[in-house]
């Protein structure tokens, strides 16, 4: 299967690096507002960091919903991405303000996809990441064959340990709701610093016919 998947690059932390990333054919940039993460934007980030012309997602974990809405409004985010235990009501409140909601779930072989049913009318996308005990992600893959168990109607982003040599394998995934891919630590020189050459080569391969 070959289809055009959306490319999301998450963990933007430095303005100069973000400027370089947004020159690539990426569709969405993610900014992490979770202090334990190595890619946390910081208490007083450079205001220029959020000046991108690309659509932007604020990434949160169990944050107060009104704090999230205030940040999204002040920084002109189009998306709010939720990585904690946020319930459908929280998602609905955010979506009612005109924002698109990406709700992340961490998968392993024991994950029950029936849990997603209650979110189907309150989110725009799911994001499937790797089940881990580490806050902010582990950079490890989950078994992508688990995706075959997902039969819902909400499109999803694939996340979790995607590496520069995974393009061919991703292009071979055959799931009607696979909407995009989320790139992060596998394309970094250090936390928050994306390797532009690796990203560029990977995206070129992903978009090749």
From TrEMBL:
Domain N-(5'phosphoribosyl) anthranilate isomerase (PRAI): 8-204
Domain of life: Bacteria
Keyword Amino-acid biosynthesis (UniProt): yes
Alphabetized UniProt keyword annotations: Amino-acid biosynthesis, Aromatic amino acid biosynthesis, Isomerase, Tryptophan biosynthesis
GO annotation terms (biological process): L-tryptophan biosynthetic process
Alphabetized GO MF terms: phosphoribosylanthranilate isomerase activity
Protein name as annotated: N-(5'-phosphoribosyl)anthranilate isomerase
Catalytic activity: N-(5-phospho-beta-D-ribosyl)anthranilate = 1-(2-carboxyphenylamino)-1-deoxy-D-ribulose 5-phosphate
Stated family: Belongs to the TrpF family.
One Pfam assignment: PRAI
InterPro entries: Aldolase_TIM (IPR013785), PRAI_dom (IPR001240), RibuloseP-bd_barrel (IPR011060), TrpF_fam (IPR044643)
Gene3D superfamilies: Aldolase class I (3.20.20.70)
EC number in record: 5.3.1.24
Pathway involvement of the protein, from the record: Amino-acid biosynthesis; L-tryptophan biosynthesis; L-tryptophan from chorismate: step 3/5
Native source species: Mariniphaga sediminis
